[in-house]
Amino acid sequence: MNLSTRVYGLLLLAYPPEFRREFGGQMQQVFRDSYRAEARGGSLLSFWLRTFVDLVLTASKERADRSGREGVFMNRRSDLVALLGCVGIIVIALLLLGYLKRNDFFSIYWVGYILDALVSTGVVGNFIVLLLWMTTRLNPFRAALWTLATVHAVLLGVIFIISRSAPGSTDWGGVVLGYLVSFLIWVGLHFAWQSRKFTRIDTDQNKSV
Amino acid sequence: MTKEKPEAWLPLTPAMFHILLALADKERHGYEIMREVDERTEGKMRVGPGTLYGSIKRMLNDGLIEELDERPDPELDDERRRYYRLSDLGRRVAIAEAERLDKLVKSARSKKLLSARGT
After folding, report:
1. Three-point CA angle A16, A19, A22, nearest 5°
2. Which of A92-96, A151-155, A164-168, B26-30 has the highest average model confidence (pLDDT)?
3. Which residues of chain A have a Cβ shorter than 8 Å from any chain B Cβ?
4. Could you tell me the CA-to-CA distances from B25 to A32, B20, B84 in Å, in that order?
5. pLDDT tens-digit profile of A10-40?
6. Contacts B56 to A, Cβ<8 Å
7. Do A23 and B34 count as a contact with CB atoms less than 8 A apart?
8. Mutation site, B13, B16, B19, B31, interface A, largest A CB count within 10 A
9. For chain B, which residues lie within 8 Å of any Cβ of chain A, measuring from their own Cβ?
10. Are B48 and A23 inside 8 Å of each other by CB?
11. Is the ipTM of this complex over 0.85?
């Protein structure tokens, strides 16, 4: 079994256990056959992209079918808006960061540090949060809170270790403030999204009663 | 609502209809279904493993397809593969969906969206 098939086997954890038990082996076999065919003459990157999109969409559908109610992934439009919003924030922050660096405005009002932290923790943290939502039944807000706290702390630690090799080159005030503000922004957005989502679900359920 | 009447299942999702079409002429395993859909649509419709087995699960539950107890050609094939075939209900549903689409195409033709030869 090649590495790609093993990775796909791990990604199958996104599906509910009963679905995985019933079809996981078959899916892995179909993936392996398709991968071999694609490796002979197609683009493996587009193959992986297609497979990943297929996995995200169908795993959320299977989980929603299992729960039989408006759950974490049932409200797909809301999830898609949140996902696109998250990507949008990261892209805008990245563009702004590029502009500030090009024009030597990076350290002005510590905006550059905040954007820097927002991008790096946003990409890593939200990806892990997404995987956790897909593969576990943890409380969505708590999972996001602890993941983001850990990611912020770890990245801050990495900067600390790297900066020891070049003492005096890091503006610690800016870096710490950037990470603090970034943490508050991401956690605030997750809190606002979850509150809105579950308020809507409650309202919908009351209406149906 | 009873679902014994084929019309009760319509419209089918594109993936379900393509899978039923793939099974219309012979029983196939999952990868064969994927390849048949890919070849028939010249790569325009690609069914991923999640879509394929999600649809198969629903169609098995609804009795539109059946899993074979024996593989058609045990000599030539991997014994872990599972083969599927259309049930009688599945065939009637596929026919009903094809007729529905045929009516749609006829309507499009009558509105001059398609030429008489269907090009």
Report:
1. 150
2. B26-30
3. 15, 19, 22-23, 25-27, 29-31, 33-34, 50-51, 53-55, 57-59, 61-62
4. 25, 10, 12
5. 889 888 889 999 999 999 999 999 999 988 8
6. 23
7. no
8. B31
9. 30-31, 34, 46, 48-54, 56-57, 78, 80-82
10. no
11. yes
| Secondary structure of A53-80 in HEC code, one letter for each residue | HHHHHHHHHHHHHHHCCCCCCCCHHHHH
Contact assessment for residue B37 and residue B19, using Cβ atoms and an 8 Å cutoff: yes
- What single DSSP character describes residue B65? E
Mean pLDDT: which of A10-19, A88-97, A107-116 is highest? A10-19
User: What is the DSSP secondary-structure string of B11-30?
Assistant: SPPHHHHHHHHHTSSS-EEH
Question: What's the rounded mean pLDDT across residues B60-82?
Answer: 81
Residue B113 CA from chain centroid, whole number? 26
Distance CA A57, CA A53 (A): 6
Contact B57 A23 (CB under 8 A): yes
- Among chain A residues, the shortest Cα distance to B52 is held by A27
Give the number of A-B residue pairs with CB atoms closer than 8 Å.
Answer: 54
Residues of chain B with C-beta less than 8 angstroms from the C-beta of A58: 48, 50-51, 54
Residues A126 and A185: beta-carbon distance below 8 Å: no
Q: pLDDT category, A190, cuts 50, 70, 90?
A: confident
Predicted local confidence at residue A197, as pLDDT: 61
